[in-house]
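seq:
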Amino acid sequence: MQRFTRSPMRGWRWLYSFFGLLMAGLAAYVFLTWPYDVSIDLVMLVFPTLLLAAGTGLLYVGSVLNDERLAAFSRFVQRWGF
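struct:
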């Protein structure tokens, strides 16, 4: 098993991933538990969407931060235009 000892930022990777999961989970909870009889105004539609986008971005940053395997996967995804 390879240890990522070269990276001085390896502790930050887990922090980014934790907060990314927390934010994405909170946004998913808001989306999935929204009562259908309550009208959704623009603020309550935009807030969870921004939260989900920020959480996903933090997960991405946390996953590719000085991790060669996930950086290679990121290059593969960018190459095929997903």
